[in-house]
Amino acid sequence: MDNPESNPIENETAELAAISPVEETPATQSPEAMQTPDPAPPPPAKRNPAALFFVAAVVAVMLFLGFHATRRAGAGGPPDSLDPAGKPAPDFTLASLDGKNMTLSDLRGQAVLLNFWATWCGPCKIEMPWFIELQKEYGPQGLQIVGVAMDDASKEDIQKFVQEMGVNYTILLGKEAVGQEYGGVDVLPTTFFIDRDGKIVSREFGLQSRSLFVDNIKKSLSQGHAVQAQK
After folding, report:
1. How far apart are CA 66 and CA 108, in angstroms?
2. Alpha-carbon torsion 46, 52, 55, 59, what sign?
3. Could you tell me which residues are beta bridge partners of residue 194?
4. Second label for 37, Cα 20 to 30 Å away, from 23, 91, 134, 208?
């Protein structure tokens, strides 16, 4: 029996299927092709010059305040430290407001009240009138009060302050090296009482009572070898 005659339409469809490319479906795509490309990195943030200047200014202010906090004005005492009583007072030479140099050892034979202070120190302003009175009262007996200005102010500003306060005792322009010789002077005011032989009788931190100053002055005057008092 002869084969039935082929359908021309079916034959044409089969030929087209044989030569047409088959598209890859998502199910047959490779994992690499299915990965989402990485997003582009964001552009670098621009630095604001004004913000940088503000940060630098804040740091500078903090450093400045830290320095003054280290040397603070106090009404009491700092942490305990070695008692210098009975030890020789470190010698030094500093310039006075009138431009002359003064050496501490030149005052040997007199009792000395050595006061470290500053124009910005509130407690210092309270005790200075006492020192003016004490210099008048005990100066004839051989007391010499010496104020050492541990100040950032100019010589002219210190001079103006001293004149306004009516100070009648010697004021010297301090140096950090001298302060270090006396234990760092981390608290202002700090006052040393020195006898006639140049030995430390007592050291007081911060604002103390006038009566305590008087007691220490009397002790300083009574110890050591006296010379003729300077009025």
Report:
1. 38
2. positive
3. 112, 200
4. 23
Closest CA to 218 of 188, 186, 196: 196
Q: What is the distance in angstroms between the CA of the first residue and the CA of the last residue of the chain?
A: 158
Handedness of CA 194, 198, 199, 203 (dihedral sign): positive
Q: Given pLDDT bands bounded at 50, 70 and 90, which one contains residue 226?
A: confident
For range 130-159, the mean pLDDT: 96
Pairing mode of beta strands 93-95, 101-103: antiparallel
The token pair at 5 is 């005659």
User: Which pTM does this prediction carry?
Assistant: 0.66
Encoded tokens for 201: 């009788």
* Count of other CB atoms within 10 angstroms of residue 9: 8
Q: How deeply is 184 buried, as exposed, middle or buried, from its count of CB atoms within 10 A (0-12, 13-18, 19+)? A: middle
User: Quick one: pLDDT band at residue 56, thresholds 50, 70, 90?
Assistant: low
Q: Which residues contact 109 (CB under 8 A, 6 or more apart)?
A: 142, 196, 224, 225, 226, 227
Instruction: Give the helix, strand, coil percentages of the chain, each rounded to 5.
Output: 40, 20, 40
Residue type, 68: H
DSSP letter string, 76-91: S--S-----TTSBPPP
